[in-house]
Specification:
mainly beta; five-stranded antiparallel β-sheet; 1 helix; 9 strands
């Protein structure tokens, strides 16, 4: 029988105390990881008494744009909801959904619209505002709904000579509900890309 060149290693003949110490160290690591995790995102309402809930006490769901008829002329091609985000835009305690929608083109970059959807307690979702009309021939880049403000990067073309693949203008725009309508609060001037 040949003897090994290395001495016996401690982990090859572990005793119960070794396993107990390992288990205690792992429990400590797991507990510490649980304490050091980032907080989850939460939102607080400014007027909780206005928050609309379902009959089971859960917050009312945001309108789903899936079955909504959008005011787009697509020549039978249908529409595509490219992006959507929800939030309480008018302060009534019910979330609205903002959808970026364009015609379902097989290729290219069709112009898009930005629409605000609302939904009553029993009614189907419906479009209540158009923030960007596809007739403006813009496409929507970045898009977000935060703290009651809708913001978007709008891409456009300086002339008909610019290829439709490559917008050469960009503008930042945002809208906020004021009184009875959405008011554009920034981004009045376009700038070249």
């Amino acid at each position: 029988m040949q003897t090994p060149a290395l001495p016996d290693l401690a982990h090859t003949a572990a005793k119960p105390m070794h396993w107990l110490a390992t288990a205690a160290a792992m429990a400590g690591v797991v507990a510490l990881a649980g304490l050091l995790q980032p907080r989850t995102a939460t939102a607080t309402a400014t007027a909780p008494e206005q928050r609309t809930t379902t009959q089971h006490g859960a917050p009312a769901p945001a309108p789903d744009p899936a079955g909504v008829e959008f005011p787009l002329e697509c020549g039978g091609a249908g529409t595509t909801v490219a992006k959507k985000a929800s939030g309480d835009l008018d302060g009534d305690g019910r979330p609205e959904t903002v959808a970026v929608v364009h015609c379902a083109a097989g290729s290219g970059t069709p112009p898009g619209g930005i629409y605000v959807l609302t939904q009553g307690s029993v009614a189907a979702p419906r479009v209540v505002a158009t923030l960007v009309d596809p007739a403006d021939r813009k496409t929507v880049g970045d898009f977000a709904v935060r703290d009651g403000v809708v913001s978007a990067t709008l891409l456009g073309y300086s002339s008909l000579d610019v290829p439709r693949c490559c917008p050469d203008q960009e503008e930042q725009a945002s809208w906020r509900w004021k009184g009875q309508a959405f008011v554009r609060t920034s981004g009045d001037l376009a700038r070249s890309v």
